[in-house]
Design brief:
The protein contains 20 helices and eight strands. It is α/β, with parallel strands linked by helices. The protein has an eight-stranded mixed beta sheet with strand order 3-2-4-1-5-6-7-8, sandwiched between helices. α18 links the parallel β5 and β6. α13 runs antiparallel to α20 and α14 packs parallel to α15. The N terminus is likely disordered. The structure holds guanosine-5'-diphosphate. Guanosine-5'-diphosphate binds next to α14.
Length: about 400
């Protein structure tokens, strides 16, 4: 009996060991060895379709919400007013409600690092190519490619290469300084000699009126808010018209910008008539004797006729008070050819008088400045170089080129 029992036990053990080996062998093939012990199933297998509410419970979201709720300054804002935090005298006084924006003169020079970071490849690439001992056909082709890759556009690229070839030939031997000087001159010439003033002075005794147009998402509302700061920094009083009634948050967003610099925002109900808001904004500007009225518009590119009807109506209604002094088209520099197509559509619908190129901090395709000016025959007047409140700079060709090639 004992012998039988011993044999049965021995058999059971043998089977268990054998099947264990097989299973562990299979397991080893299917899973990496470290995974099963370190990641319990509840965590390694999150629901395939997370619920909206789940997101808010993640530890990353919570501090962000809290900061926004209690209104603590963002990193950008904190950096703007370090004295208010550090200086106890300032800290005791009630916090000033209205901010003083940075002066606008020389902003592009101050922000050039933003450009240099993303545009480096264009300017430095060109300089390196031009410095080659033998400027053969292949090198000129590479120079052309570099310009095309940066979205300069075909015709301006060919013009520039032709000019460079001519001048390099005349120059004979070339020092790096000579080459830099030559490239600088030619790039500046390519950017053209335009009047880049944002016209905010009305010829009549009424506020200057600026209409801001562009596709939603390009940074139109942000730009309108930043432009209000530019004008306030230059000593002007501003009224804002929130005529983008299509995008739900646009009016709130604009009002926040306005409140920060003490500019009143005229707004209407969500989905309301943009033209009547624009009309009321100019009326308010006249009543307040404001210097400038900025009108943000809706930028849905549904159909060209729809866009034309909407913007045309806003323009006509505003012009009942007096002429529009500036129509700025906001374009996202990162959208390349798409941006140019948008520009074309808007230019057919309204008479654009200036271009604002946003997000130049996020692209190496700075050549779009040249391309869009050629396309519309209208100057780039302002450039957006970041999300900070004072990251909108008047466009200066020389400072722009210096940022590209270094000086
Ligand atoms: P709208 O729909 O055209 O009114 O777009 P918004 O004004 O809401 O801007 C869309 C996004 O672009 C926001 O997150 C802005 O902060 C961002 N933005 C606007 N201008 C710039 C810029 O010059 N640089 C960067 N990096 N972001 C920008």
């Amino acid at each position: 009996m004992e012998l039988i029992l011993a044999v049965v036990i021995a058999l059971v053990v043998a089977v268990a060991v054998t099947s264990g080996l097989v299973i562990s062998g299979r397991k080893k093939k299917q899973l990496p060895p470290a995974e099963p012990p370190s990641t319990p199933p509840t965590i390694t297998a999150p629901p395939a379709e997370p619920h909206v509410g789940d997101e808010a419970e993640t530890p990353r979201e919570e501090p962000r919400r809290t900061v926004e709720e209690v209104g603590l300054p963002t990193a950008e804002e904190a950096a703007e007013a370090p004295a208010a935090v550090e200086d106890p005298v300032v800290a005791e006084a009630p916090a000033p409600e209205i901010e003083v924006p940075e002066p606008t003169a020389g902003r592009l020079v101050r922000l050039r690092a933003r450009l240099a970071r993303s545009q480096n490849s264009l300017g430095k690439g060109l300089l390196t190519l031009l410095s080659r001992e033998h400027l053969d056909e292949d090198t000129w082709e590479e120079i052309e490619e570099t310009l095309l890759t940066a979205d300069v556009g075909v015709a301006p690229t060919q013009e520039l290469v032709e000019r460079l070839r001519e001048r390099v030939k005349v120059l004979g031997t070339r020092t790096p300084e000579e080459l830099r000087g030559l490239l600088r001159e030619e790039l500046i010439a390519l950017l053209g000699d335009y009047d880049r003033t944002v016209h905010t002075e009305s010829p009549e005794d009424t506020p200057g009126v600026v209409m801001v147009v562009g596709v939603n998402g390009t940074g139109k509302t942000t730009t309108t808010g930043k432009l209000a700061r530019v004008l306030v920094a230059d000593g002007k009083s501003v009224v804002l018209g929130a005529a983008d009634t299509f995008r739900a948050a646009a009016a709130d967003q604009l009002q926040t910008w306005g409140d920060r610099v003490g500019a009143r925002t005229v707004r209407g109900p969500e989905g309301g008539d943009p033209a009547s808001i624009a009309f009321d904004a100019v009326k308010e500007g006249i009543a307040e004797k404001a210097d400038v009225v900025l009108v943000d518009t809706a930028g849905r590119l549904h159909t060209k006729t729809g866009l034309m009807d909407e913007l045309g109506k806003v323009k006509r209604v505003v012009e009942k008070h007096g002429p529009l002094d500036e129509i700025l088209l906001v374009l996202d520099a990162t959208t390349g050819q798409n941006g140019l197509i948008q520009a074309r559509v808007f230019a057919e619908v309204v008479d654009i008088t200036g271009i604002v190129l946003t997000k130049l901090d996020g692209t190496a395709k700075g050549g779009i400045v040249v391309a869009v000016q050629r396309e519309l025959g209208v100057p780039v007047k302002l450039v957006g170089l970041g999300e900070g409140p004072d990251d909108l700079a008047p466009f200066e060709p020389a400072a722009f080129v210096d940022a590209l090639i270094g000086d």
